[in-house]
Amino acid sequence: MRPGVLPHQWLTGGPNCIEVPDWQVHEYNADFFIIRESGCTHYEKPFLYLLFGKDRAILQDTGSGKNDSARIVTQVVAKWLARNRRQSIPLIVMHSHAHDDHIAGDDQFKGLPNITVVPATIPETKELYGIPHWPDDIGHIDLGARVLDVIPIPGHNEVSVALYDRQTGVLLTGDSLYPGRLYVNNFADFVRSTDRLADFTRGKIVTHLFGCHIEQSSTPYLDYPLGSMYQPHEHSLELSRSHILELAAALHSMNGIPRRMAMPDYSIWPVTP
Ligand SMILES: [Zn+2]
Ligand SMILES: [Zn+2]
Fold this sequence. Notes:
By secondary structure, the chain is an alpha/beta fold. 22% of the residues lie in helices and 24% in strands.
């Protein structure tokens, strides 16, 4: 597995927004960038992921609220190109799922040279990754000497996907598993998706599991209130495969009756009864 490094703490937003950059760009390794939107721009302060292969790059999500994600992403791509002495690289803009706080910047990318924006719909997601039967089949995308596996995981949203990067062993799980409130919109689908994710990762190395938000504090069981801009003692971004197994067990313990359940590193939050 190709390694990477993580910061000890992420910028969140505030307390003095004038001092806070709109985006935090973190180089996990030379071909893997984690970009976080500031809580001063929008309280959701999501994480975006930019991965480079030999032939193309992929961006997961375009930010929340009124943001300028295309500016920061094209800047990072330009620096990557300069470092690699290349003229250009095609960029595919895809999504962890279709919620507003992950697609808000889409329009800025449309029409830019060498950039393809793939809408967060089931038909276009199936086509992009070659998934014959949604959600039971696994899709793939080859960035050039870098294959990502794509696991459909509906439940938080009908078009949620997880991405497994074989090169780094990182699993991107969107809003389906992250240190915060896991809003479950379709409970039966969410349970099945969690089981499938556990099955998919069995026997594989999962170095880190990265979701798209942090809402949990560094104190077990304690989350920040909804809408928090400034979170000075955040939980780490990274979780591990053990959290998938723990989540699956917790969901099954509900015996088909959804209820809220606080866990040390996240909480399960059914939205519908
Ligand atoms: Zn969401
Ligand atoms: Zn979200």
